[in-house]
Amino acid sequence: MAIPNPAPNHELRSPADLHPSTGGDQPKSKGWLWILVLIVIAVGGYYFYKSRGSAESKAAPAPGARAALGPVSVAVVPALKQDVPYYLAGLGSVTPFNTVTVKSRVDGQLQKVNFTEGQFVKEGDLLAEIDPRPFQVALEQMEGQLARDQAQLNNARVDFGRYDELHKEGVVAQQQVDTQRATVGQLEGAIRADQAQIDNEKLQLVYCRITAPLSGRVGLRLVDQGNMIHASDPTGLVVITQVQPIATLFTLPEDNLQDVIQHMKSEELGVEAYSRDDQTKLATGKLVTVDNQIDPTTGTVRLKAVFDNRDLSLWPNQFVNIRLMLAVRKNAIVIPLAAVQRGTQGSYVYTVTNGHANMQPVKVDLTQGNISLIASGVAAGDQVVVDGQDRLQPGAPVEVHSNAPSGGPGGAAPGEGRPGGQNGGRRQGGGGADAPAGSGQGQGAGGGRQGGHKPGQGKQG
Q1: What CA dihedral angle connects 36, 37, 43 and 48, to 10 degrees?
Q2: Are 356 and 448 in contact (CB under 8 A)?
Q3: Edge-to-edge strand ranges of the sheet holding 126-130
Q4: 308-332: per-residue pLDDT in tens?
Q5: pTM for this one?
Q6: pLDDT value at position 52?
Q7: Which residue among 31, 64, 359, 409 is buried most deeply as judged by most CB within 10 Å?
């Protein structure tokens, strides 16, 4: 049986025709695959970053929180109740009561010097001698002239007696008697002039011995022995300065003038002089007087104090810091200045109770050097933090590692808080104390550790 031929429209197909090739779509599929991989990687990295940041934020403690790291190490001191002197501080300079430049009152050769430089002399002590011989010769000359005029006066008086008797007998005229009387008067005047000249020459001899016009300390010798000196010389021989007692002029702001005057009426005010660095007490004296006017350019008034200066701790023209004690604050609550902090709500301190820190608002009455007088907020015996406040929060556990010396808050002896100085006599700020007006605030030191911080935040400058 013959096999019929296939239809014309059915052609023989190769295996390749039966399995069509997909080579043209393979590159396109691979590109989408890589895009999908990159998207997966990006999403995974994003979630990993977010989860890590969240874990770190949960693990990190809040600012100032130290509960997870243990108690905060701090230093505390107890608040004390004691009497504190109330001072006003000013800048001053030492001024001698008297200063004299010793000069010669006659011309001549400096024959002898009887003092040594730096010697203390008393009023009337012999300092130097000028050659007296020229003045001695002049004195003898005037004494001779006086003897001559005295003899002429005696003769004129005898003649006047004779003429007066002859006039009574009518022998001589009245005019001759009057003329002789005038001659006697002239000679009497000459005698008085001669005596005055003699006294002057004796005075010149006294001036040849130069003595101290006051008690004090002599300075450096300005003229050497053997030189010719004159009364018109501007420099003189030596300068004598009275240093025992000695005075001090200092200034205070005019705002304090009424307080000073009121206290002067009832008592004698004490004054203390301190060194230039305001650390060493030099002398103790008393206030003498207040100037009669205020300096309008600086708004200050000058005051004068006197010191015995027995140990010569004060020297003329020396710069000193003056503290005028007006009164004593009785039973004042005193804490170190370093304990007082500043915040948005005012001044505060940290106290320690049962091992935990408590933030206590306080009202500072005044600041004296390194101590603060507290009007309210702290009681005697409260433990106040003086170091480590920048790491504290209210209620944080604390560990006390040291205490200040027992002599007073921050090591200050009771009643010896030092006031700060004045700036050109002007009032300074009280080192972070919120004192009410009229409480003495502004007389304390302008420095001090007062960079306060807000509760729960880091320490601010």
Answers
A1: 170
A2: no
A3: 209-211, 126-130, 108-113, 228-229
A4: 999 999 999 999 999 998 888 888 8
A5: 0.57
A6: 61
A7: 409
- In the block, tokens 């100037």 appear at 291
Higher confidence at residue 110 or residue 389?
110
**Measured distance CA(308)–CA(331) in Å, rounded:** 32
Count the helix, strand and coil residues of the chain and give each as a percent rounded to the nearest 5: 30, 35, 40
Nearest 5°: CA angle at 376, between 372 and 377? 95
What sign has the CA pseudo-torsion 49, 50, 56, 61? positive
* DSSP designation for 194: H
- Per the DSSP assignment, residues forming a β-bridge with 121 are 216
| CA distances to 248, 279, 325 from 321, in Å | 10, 10, 13
Long-range contacts: 113-120, Cβ < 8 Å, 24+? 113/221, 113/224, 113/225, 115/218, 115/221, 115/238, 116/218, 117/218, 117/219, 117/220, 117/221, 118/217, 118/218, 118/219, 119/217, 119/218, 120/215, 120/216, 120/217, 120/218
Element (H, E) at 240: strand 238-241
Are 385 and 352 contacting, i.e. CB atoms less than 8 angstroms apart?
A: yes
Amino acid type, 34 = W
